[in-house]
Amino acid sequence: MNKTLFKNAYIITMNKSKQLFENGSLLVENDRIVKVGEVLPSDLSEDTEVIDCAGKIVMPGLINTHVHLSQQLGRGLADDVDLLTWLRERIWPYESSMSEEEQYISALACCIEMIKSGVTSFAESGGFHVNGLGKAVEEIGIRCALARSTMDSGEGLPLVWRESTDYTLNKQIEAYEKWNNKGNGRIKYWFAIRTIFNATDELLLRTKELADKYNTGIHMHIAEIPDEIDYVKSRTGGYSTVEYLSKIGFLDKNILGAHTVWLTDKEVDLFRLHNVKSSHNPAAAMRVLGFAKVPEMLKKGVVVSIGTDGAPCNNRMDMIDEMYLTALIHKGRTLNPKTTPAETIIEMATLNGAKTILQEDEIGSLEVGKKADLIIINPKSIGSMPLHDPVSTIVYSMHSTNVESTMCDGKWVMKDRKIKFVSEEDILNKVEHMAESIRKKAGIILPDRFPTIR
Q1: Is the pLDDT at 1 greater than 80, yes or no?
Q2: Which residue, 18, 20, 189, 424, has most beta carbons within 10 Å?
Q3: Domain ranges in the chain?
């Protein structure tokens, strides 16, 4: 029986009462939280690991609800270009040129970066070498809603990605049967649809049937750009993306819509009506997509969480940065300083994230009986002190370097800034070698931004 005691901590529980404990204690036994607030000497055993958190913050692990593991090695390949150039000339050629081993290393690198910014759970949007991605997540020790990218139509797709509806759905079922509940239940398998650009009605409806059959979710980019809305209107006789998905019976509580930037007020109401979840990715959205109606969605009761998106469209897989951006951009858009306050941002990154990946009963808050997914934040850095208001400081002043230790499923995945289950140095060396090799294989030539002497 393994026990870990966190004592003298400023504990942000995110329970139903949103309780905070100053100089509080929290006890973990194996993979579960067994005490929060006060822990008695009789609750401990001789071999209990004791962590003195004086001056530090203990809070739920952050949940990143939109990630592309297989794109990590493409960071920096598609900066300052429009979306179609981003897709068809840079990222699709790069990602489709990757082997399973290369996507495995990409996934490990991505997970390391997330862990170091306090992430204990994430939702993968879908890569093609799902076995490589799953292997990485199983080894690194965090929680994941794993998925395989699914497409059966669309222009400009690399040849190796062109699959029939039957084939791509059968691959999904195979992946579900192999990966769901792996890693002591840390890995849940979800179905995924890349975009409505790349999905026939048959794929949409059969995917929904399978997700319902297997009691799992669907991860899909929805209402991402105006071109998508125009495309759907031309294809459906005037319906926008969300209106059409509602019309065919696709929208439901197990749908995760990534980005959802171009929703009308009516479509926000449809999200609320069907309990569709939204992943807000502020950095990626500001690059080329636009500003999602996050305050409006939250006000109407839509569950909105936070995600980073992939490394080539954000460049930082850093949830601390995303929290900061989410808090600020909507104040600027609405000209209301009370919009998206710090406590709302933390809820979006924790409890709303858990709701988004359909694990609210297991994670997202520090409560007795829930999984021991938590982080220790050390605020003692020149960029975040003094600490007048810890909740506000996390959102507006902290950096990923303030995340000292990360625990998932009762096990340390990072302790004192050191990754536990893999060698970060070894992964860095492989990333450097593989990234350039894949770029050459894909035939991607980047422009010289300044006169370069070689």
Answers
A1: no
A2: 189
A3: 3-60+370-419, 62-356
Cα(202)–Cα(29) distance, rounded to whole angstroms?
Answer: 47
pLDDT digits (tens, 9 = 90+) for 379-421: 999 999 999 999 999 999 999 999 999 999 999 999 999 999 9
Structural tokens at position 398: 């902290």
What is 3-60+370-419's CATH number? 2.30.40.10
Q: Is the pTM of this model over 0.85?
A: yes
At the top level of CATH, the class of 62-356 is: alpha beta
- Give the C-alpha distances (Å, rounded to integers) separating 366 from 59, 126, 372: 7, 29, 8
